[in-house]
Design brief:
16 helices; two-stranded antiparallel sheet; about 375 residues; five-stranded antiparallel beta sheet; alpha+beta
């Protein structure tokens, strides 16, 4: 029997751009990268790509590639439409370690699950972003993966579901934050609590989830990005039960805006839905409390909601305007100060019923102090 010279060898090919066919360089980690960001690269044809080494975070890879292709301009990225503004392709079986495509999916007893997600922006967008992308890649450097934070066995205490529930109910979040860095079940156990029908309990759960995600995000921002994507998906799926999802999204972003502020534009799309508008505005008001600068340029888009037919929409818009420091809304806020409809305001573990007029008056007071 004549044995093939390929027996015992794994067939591989160098990775190439699916748009132009040219070979590509190994994806690189950007300088000043945040924990959990994926390696990225660009082809000479203008396509960009992000590498998901696990193959389980293709949604995150799409976002990474799209945002990188927009020169890290999140607002621009979220306003682009597939096919109309960009095309996308996936290259599977990518081995990041050796920078090879392994069609069989196995190499040296390792399963190869990596994926390269490619984005090719249309020329009019590429004209604006290409120079910035080039400069970012010129500054890149291969950064060793940071070692896992070492925690002694004595510190590795986990919290059972019932204890977490009691801590949330009592608004005692420090014990939860103490284990957030290594208890992998914590996110799931907190997430299930945000769907409670008890308003105060649900809002406390959402806040504590946001605080815990801020801790976890320092070491594993991918896990929190995946959680945010799942929450947005649940909201978009009309068949899903989404009570508490908006509150959780607002709290997660507000407690770590430097990592997750890029998800804010996804909230705007739900403002068109009258049934969800008040929830969106409440979440935006929460974010604006910690980082008003991230929403300030969109202030005029919120003006119309101060005259909305729904009292909750007017109330949460007034709250948002106060948190934004929107002096241009003063006249419209003054028209609301005598309104007696009540809404719920949550802050620091407490839930209080206040009138829309009181919210407007408090917003005006904030504006007067900020002068």
């Amino acid at each position: 029997m004549i044995e093939s010279k390929f027996v015992g060898k794994t067939l591989t090919t160098p990775p190439a751009c699916p748009f132009c066919g040219l070979l590509i360089e190994k994806p690189r980690e950007l300088e000043n990268r945040r924990q959990g960001e994926m390696p990225v690269g660009s082809c000479s044809c203008g396509a960009v790509y992000a590498c998901d080494e696990t193959g389980h975070s293709q949604g995150a890879a799409l976002i990474e590639a799209l945002v990188f292709g927009c020169d890290m301009d999140w607002d621009l990225a979220w306003n682009l439409l597939p096919e109309e503004d960009y095309k996308q392709e996936i290259v599977e079986n990518y081995d990041y370690i050796r920078h090879l495509i392994v069609p069989g999916g196995f190499m040296d007893s390792r399963r190869i699950l990596g994926v390269l997600f490619f984005i090719r922006l249309h020329d009019d967008v590429l004209e604006v972003t290409s120079e910035g992308i080039r400069k970012r890649l010129e500054r890149t450097k291969h950064t060793p993966v940071s070692a896992e934070r070492k925690i002694s066995p004595k510190q590795k205490k986990t919290l059972p579901k019932k204890e977490i529930e009691n801590l949330v109910r009592e608004y005692r979040f420090k014990p939860i934050l103490d284990v957030a860095g290594y208890d992998k079940k914590l996110i799931r156990n907190l997430q299930r609590l945000i769907y409670s029908g008890d308003d105060l309990f649900r809002k406390r759960a959402a806040e504590i989830l946001g605080r815990a995600c801020a801790v976890i995000g320092e070491e594993d921002s991918k896990a929190i990005s995946k959680l945010l994507q799942n929450l947005f998906y649940a909201i978009s799926d009309t068949a899903a039960f989404t009570w508490g999802a908006f509150e959780a999204i607002g709290e997660i972003i507000s407690h770590k805006t430097e990592l997750f502020g890029g998800y804010i534009p996804q909230l705007y799309q739900f403002l068109a839905d009258e049934t969800r508008r008040s929830q969106v505005l409440q979440s935006l008001a929460t974010i604006a409390r910690s980082r008003p600068d991230l929403l300030r340029k969109h202030t005029f888009h919120f003006f119309t909601y101060l005259k909305d037919a729904e009292p909750a929409v007017r109330g949460y818009t007034a709250l948002l305007m106060g948190n934004l420091g929107a002096h241009e809304a003063k006249e419209d806020l003054e028209k609301l100060v005598n309104e007696s409809h009540e809404i719920d305001i949550y802050e620091n573990g407490n839930l209080e019923k206040v009138t829309v007029g009181q919210v407007a008056a408090q917003a005006l007071e904030k504006l007067s102090v900020q002068k």
